[in-house]
From TrEMBL:
Gene3D superfamilies: FAD/NAD(P)-binding domain. The keyword NADP applies. This is L-lysine N6-monooxygenase MbtG. Pfam families: Lys_Orn_oxgnase (PF13434). Pathway: Siderophore biosynthesis. Its EC number is 1.14.13.59.
Amino acid sequence: MRTSDRREDVVPHHHVAGLGAGPANLSLAALGEDVVPGGVVLFERREGPAWHPGLLGSGTQLQTSWIKDLVSLADPRNRLSFLNYMVTTGRIYAFLNAQYESIPRLEYARYLAWASGRLGSVRYGSEITEVDFADGRFVLQGPEGPVATATHVVFGLGTRADVPACFAGQQIDGVVQAEQLESHLATVPSVPYEQAIVIGGGQTGAECVLNLVQRGFRDIRWIGRRQWFAPMDESPSANDFYRPTYLRFFQGLPESVRERYVAEQTLTSDGVSMTTLQVLYQANYEAFLREGRSPVMMLPGRSVVEASQRHGTIALWCERDWGGRERHSARTVVLATGRKASPLPISPRLLGLLETDSSGEPVVDADYSIRWKFSEHCRMYVQNRSRVGHGLADPNLSLLAVRSAVIVNSLLERQVFAIRDEQMNTVWA
Ligand SMILES: Cc1cc2nc3c(=O)[nH]c(=O)nc-3n(C[C@H](O)[C@H](O)[C@H](O)COP(=O)(O)OP(=O)(O)OC[C@H]3O[C@@H](n4cnc5c(N)ncnc54)[C@H](O)[C@@H]3O)c2cc1C
């Protein structure tokens, strides 16, 4: 008996398997449902549907239009559209009358769970610890051995928290990740004039600050590296970067230009929503009127470089852009310091067959496929991992359906979905 026959007895084989069931791979599975042989089967390490749990608090909203759901930009008639979700759950009228500019994050998380349930192809509680290649197929290994084989795999593993070097490797009581703040606060008594520090000047940092204000904290320090707590640029011209036509232009640029453009475009993706900033400034202003003191002290232009704990108090040292250091202390420190790509669980043997760039990252082509030795027969694709290669739309939800459509077209080697983006008034090249 050959090795492959033995494996076939034990684990199922899929034409296309996805690792991770976040919006990226759910979108792919939704668009591939009727066209990919056997559909796209997803392996997800979580025990059930969830999308950034812990960051779905009251007032948090999507920074992307709901029209940019899992499918609509490529296939508006797909049964897994947000509109169909709204109609079939019977909430469409209530939703419209609530007059949201952007939908609550909680609603988006529920939409993803609904789509996942309808797909029925997500294997929850299935962490893939390693992908190997043997006998002409990918072997997906879980903690207890092989769980499946596949002809093609798509990595949609998302991101994980990026912890500043001074916190890495040390356990300090009272230091929590942003997504743990809710559960942490539920376990500690609220002492309004106790100091709390939030590190990170982006949207998540701003939301943590607001959360603390709303829970009665009255001595909050908000530390950010930029020279101001910068709003997201949502102007029409900035949104031109999130169009398929621009994406194609961007992918053809030399690497050095792409690097510069990504750096310059950061605030079209990573800034704070204007509404969140306004609510925060107004909360500070009104607290001053009522209590004679503003609860939030904003400390931009500072990088936290040292952290230690003494007698239950956390001491932080910050380097200032204009020179010198300053010390801040608190009993609660929240890390909202960004996210970085999750590592690809690829076996060392398979890794050796991949083409990598100067930084050791796999080379990702315009169809999101990874360049590797046997890609003619068995392909690997990767979503949300290549900012410099594919622009800032890659880590975002904006072109989710478009990226999935490109991958489906590439997998099936024909144009299943046409991507039309005409009436472009900005001339890129
Ligand atoms: C709070 C928050 C709000 C955001 N809001 C927006 C927004 O409004 N608009 C926007 O454009 N972008 C937004 N983003 C950025 C981005 O669009 C989201 O992070 C989005 O979820 C990325 O989708 P994804 O599928 O690539 O990754 P994820 O949503 O992170 O999904 C990856 C999945 O892979 C699973 N996984 C990881 N490793 C393994 C493994 N080894 N085996 C099996 N499963 C694994 C994870 O459990 C996870 O469920 C937001 C990000 C955050 C943190």
